[in-house]
Design a protein that fits this description.
Protein name: Carbohydrate binding domain protein
Keywords: Disulfide bond, Glycoprotein, Hydrolase, Immunoglobulin domain, Membrane
Distance between the termini: 41 Å
CATH architecture of the largest domain: Sandwich
Structural class: mainly beta
Pfam families: CBM_4_9
CATH class of the largest domain: Mainly Beta
InterPro entries: Cell_adhesion_signaling (IPR051275), CenC_carb-bd (IPR003305), Galactose-bd-like_sf (IPR008979), Ig-like_dom (IPR007110), Ig-like_dom_sf (IPR036179), Ig-like_fold (IPR013783), Ig_sub (IPR003599)
Number of domains: 4
Radius of gyration: 36 Å
Number of helices: 1
Helix content: under 10%
Subcellular location: Membrane
CATH superfamily of the largest domain: Galactose-binding domain-like
Number of strands: 49
CATH topology of the largest domain: Jelly Rolls
Shape: elongated
Strand content: over 45%
């Protein structure tokens, strides 16, 4: 069969629809090659039958035209009836069979059609060649009666402007704040620009929340438990972040209720029933040691929990909030009245609350009525009849009654100061602040003490920075009707966008998987042929940054890079020290080049052959079932604990006295 991608392939007859030519099958054992099997894409597929295994068994196509130092993608579909593997190489068709960038790449075949893909960079030649051979090597894996099937073998150049779908490298973090504060959620993502962002609350898009960070409005208790995430998109795909949970705590304003949380016992609360029951504070509260606990032994027609002697102002708005539940979900009603006859209503009368069977926050606002001057005889009453029944259990906590004006008129307070930032030329910096106080809060950001026009939000994003921004001091003034407060200064450090002395020897996004297993190869494109002269990289320092983006378990991994010269053998390579980790995150390391393992095995003034990234277990054994005693096995022998693992690995060599690396 043949896919649409094959139209740009440099391979001829990629899907075996035209027979077997120009594919060539060779074995020094016995076997045959036909196109008599059904393909996964089209009518036919390549079909190799092994009658007798050999030590040289290959299916290849020669005469391939290849460009130097160019990234290619090879993709194909394959399986074998026994699950026996194969390896792939791209090399010069004639002697000395120079490797052209892909060497003995082992593919772990299954017993049903699967798609395989690998990217590599051509090496071993400096001008265009037309003598490439792509070779599927079946030895030493094949056995008598094995059947190999291949289809849709496509080899294409990777465009230099290949688009990369978004990947989230820093997830939004959950937040805990108090009522009236704002919360800032942020994300860091990579991928082909431009990236777009859409924040969501409980799965619903938030209008206007389209930046890399999102600042909530002033929070209320109803926001407790809200889930925030962001959808990051570009032309090549999209990805949802993890959900970050918002936890809202309540710092009560000055309440006119005494002992609102029953922490001091039950007084001055009064429980009355013409049935039978008790009031204690022997139950755990909502985030506190105690709560009011009523037990109904016998149902009554007048069952109430109240507090008397409340001082109230006339024609004034109040907020009553409390937390409660009952074991049966039976309800209650609330009234605020004159404590004695004629029991005048003071603005809240028989307000029914639909209780649940677990702690829930309830809140109601009302305006006092029934009196024209301040009174001291108010009774706040929770009436349980006629809802209660024998064996009912009612629980109360954090009963707060406040004037609305008193509760809300608070000057601004900064709870999270802007943080200093370090960026490189051309990047932007985001400064943010979190403040509490009576809404509305206004913001004015300043740079070096001067107002920044239009910078009037809880966060501020700088323009693309130049070196002139280095050392700039940013702060924000937060204001409301009750006052203002100025934040601490945050300093912006701007580094040069590049270090002309440094060599980025590797910078690869890669997903380690059960096909490539422990060893992944990346050629040597853009690596100078001489690392001693004119710049002495071999005598400098190598810096590495390992960004672990996804990881399936907390298994310890030892990670390293190795450089090969001449041959892919242990005697011709040098390796960095291990970087050890067991979770996602970013890990940095550095070491003198001369401290590389087997540094002296490489002639640094000559061309390298390959760069290799290696995944090893906590003992330093490759996570690869091809390694057995005396070389292994690796710890646990369960690939699913290690793969797939997505990383970005960057290594920079800085020559002596070359300064610090600048990370791409």
């Amino acid at each position: 069969g043949i896919s649409s991608a094959a139209s740009t392939s440099i391979l001829v007859n990629p899907g075996f629809e035209s027979g077997t030519s120009p594919w060539i099958f060779y074995t020094n054992g016995a076997g045959k090659f036909l196109n008599n099997a059904p393909g996964i894409v089209g009518t036919y597929a390549g079909h190799v039958t092994i009658s007798s295994p050999g030590t040289n068994v290959q299916l290849y196509q020669k005469g391939l035209v290849l460009s130097p130092n160019t990234k290619y993608t090879l993709s194909f579909k394959a399986y074998s009836n026994t699950g026996h593997d194969l390896s792939i190489s791209l090399l010069k068709h004639g002697s000395p069979y120079t490797k052209y960038g892909l060497s003995n790449y082992v593919v772990n075949l299954g017993t049903s059609w699967s798609q395989y893909s690998i990217q590599f960079t051509t090496t071993g030649f400096s001008t265009t060649v037309s003598d490439g051979r792509l070779m599927f090597w079946l030895a030493p894996y094949d056995a008598a009666s094995d059947q190999y099937y291949l289809d849709d073998v496509v080899l294409t150049k990777v465009s230099v402007d290949t688009q990369v779908s978004p990947t989230i490298v820093t997830q939004p973090a959950s937040k805990t704040i108090t009522v009236g504060q704002t919360a800032i959620f942020s994300v860091a993502a990579t991928g082909t620009a431009p990236l777009t962002y859409q924040w969501q609350k409980n799965g619903t898009n938030i209008p206007g929340a389209t930046g890399a960070s999102y600042t909530t409005p002033a929070i209320t208790l109803s926001d407790n438990g809200a889930r925030f995430r962001v959808l990051v998109s570009n032309a090549w795909g999209s990805v949802n972040s993890n959900e970050a949970t918002l936890t809202v705590s309540y710092i009560p304003a000055l309440s006119i209720i005494s002992n609102p949380g029953f922490e001091l016992g039950t007084s001055p609360w009064v429980f009355y029933t013409n049935g039978a029951g008790t009031l204690l504070n022997n139950a755990p509260g909502f985030g506190s040691p105690h709560a009011g606990h009523i037990t109904i032994s016998q149902q009554g027609t007048n069952v109430q929990l109240y507090q008397k002697g409340l001082v109230l102002s006339p024609n004034t708005k109040y907020t009553l909030s409390f937390k409660a539940y009952s074991n049966t979900g039976h309800d209650l009603s609330i009234s605020l009245m004159k404590h004695i006859s004629p029991y005048t209503s003071y603005g809240l009368s028989n307000y029914v609350v639909n209780l649940g069977t677990s702690w829930t926050e309830y809140s109601v606002q009302f305006t006092t009525t029934g009196f024209s001057t301040a009174v001291r005889d108010g009774r706040l009453m929770f009436m349980l009849a006629p809802y209660d029944a024998a064996s009912d259990q009612y629980y109360f906590d954090d009963v707060v009654l406040t004037k609305v004006s008193q509760a809300t008129q608070v000057p601004p307070t900064i709870v999270t100061q802007p943080a200093s930032k370090t960026i490189t030329v051309g990047q932007t910096a985001i400064f943010s602040v979190a403040a509490t106080g009576t809404a509305p809060l206004t913001y004015q950001w300043q740079k070096n003490g001067t107002n920044i026009p239009g910078a009037t939000g809880a966060s501020y994003t700088t323009p693309s920075a130049t070196l002139s921004y280095n050392g700039a001091a940013y702060r924000v003034i937060v204001t409301n009707a009750k006052g203002s407060v100025t934040s601490n200064q945050a300093i912006l450090t701007v580094r040069a966008s590049s270090n002309t002395n440094q060599l980025v020897i590797i910078d690869e996004y890669y997903t380690h998987n059960t096909i490539t297993r422990a060893f992944s190869f990346f050629g040597v494109s853009n690596v100078p042929s001489n690392l001693v002269s004119p710049v002495n990289y071999a005598g400098g320092t190598i810096y590495s940054r390992l960004q672990v983006i996804t990881k399936p378990s907390t298994k310890i991994v030892n990670y390293q890079m190795c450089l090969f010269q001449d041959q892919l053998v242990a005697a011709k390579h040098a390796c960095t020290n291990y970087q050890k980790f067991n979770s996602t995150g970013t890990y940095y390391a550095s070491q003198p080049m001369t401290s590389l393992y087997q540094y002296n095995k490489i002639v640094w003034s000559r061309q390298l052959l390959e760069r290799m990234l290696v995944v090893k277990d906590k003992y330093g054994m490759p996570v690869d079932n091809r390694y057995r005693p005396p070389f292994g096995p690796f710890d646990g022998e369960n690939f699913n604990l290690y793969y797939p693992m997505k990383v970005r690995y960057t290594a920079i060599i800085v020559p002596p006295n070359g300064g610090q690396p600048v990370w791409p």
